[in-house]
Amino acid sequence: MRALALLLVAPLLASAQDAREPRHAPPSNVVSLQAQAEREVANDQMVALLAAEARGPAPAPLADQVNRRMRDALALAKGYPAVKVGSGNYQTWPEYKDGRIAGWRVTQELRLESTDFAAASELIGKLQSDLVMRGLSLGLSPAARRDAEDALMVEAIDAFHRRAAIVRDAMKAKSFGIRELQVSSGGDFGPRPMALGAARMASSVAPPAVEPGSSRITVTASGSIQLK
Fold first, then answer.
1. Quick check: is 163 in a domain?
2. Distance between CA atoms of 111 and 85, rounded to whole angstroms?
3. Where are any strands of DSSP class E within 115-213?
4. N or C: which end of the chain has fewer CB within 10 A?
């Protein structure tokens, strides 16, 4: 019985102790704010995707054709050190007609990446005489995006402080302290695809006409301040 009585008294003592302890009130005079900084940055990177393709009745000869075209393309690309080159997906699959295999198709992709638009465009024009152009996009290189974001981060934080000062003055407060601050970046800095024909040309092809354009970078500073 004594043990049972102790068990019953313990919760009552704990409740009494909790009642004596002061509860933390939520902070007062806290205001949430957000500020942005943005700018247009000239695109400085071109990414192109080409492919060697072949169709026919048997896969082995097609693979040989594709392999030869890709070797020639890689050899040509070595003459353009400003262009980063990498081979991509290699696929072989059957083509059906009336539920039966009517032929085969073999493809291998080639990816080009460069901040030298003139060199990349010239190389693309030469490669298009034997490869299919699957896509061309323009955007910001990682270095250009990082530099723009670093500069905008300072501007966004300065804008946050200016807004905080406006709130302080409007609320007739003496000062303010920053309770929390988050900085994030965004925008449309990803590669922008350009519409291109996909047919492989039998003769030499003029380099593609490229207008770099620009991408918008946005940095946001958001958080809260406490007026004093």
1. no
2. 6
3. 132-139, 176-187, 192-194
4. N
Structure tokens at 40: 């247009």
Q: What CATH number is given to the structural domain containing 100?
A: 3.30.70
Q: Give helix 59-77 / helix 117-127 axis angle, nearest 10°.
A: 150
Cα separation of 172 and 108, whole Å? 68
Rounded to an integer, the average pLDDT of 1-29 is: 54
Among 69, 35, 217, CA closest to 141: 217
Across the range 133-142, mean pLDDT stands at: 94
Q: In the chain, how many domains are there?
A: 1
Q: Which domain holds residue 125?
A: 45-139+191-207
Q: Which pLDDT score is estimated for 26? A: 64
Residue type, 109: E
pLDDT tens, 197-208?
Answer: 444 444 467 778
Radius of gyration of the chain (CA): 32
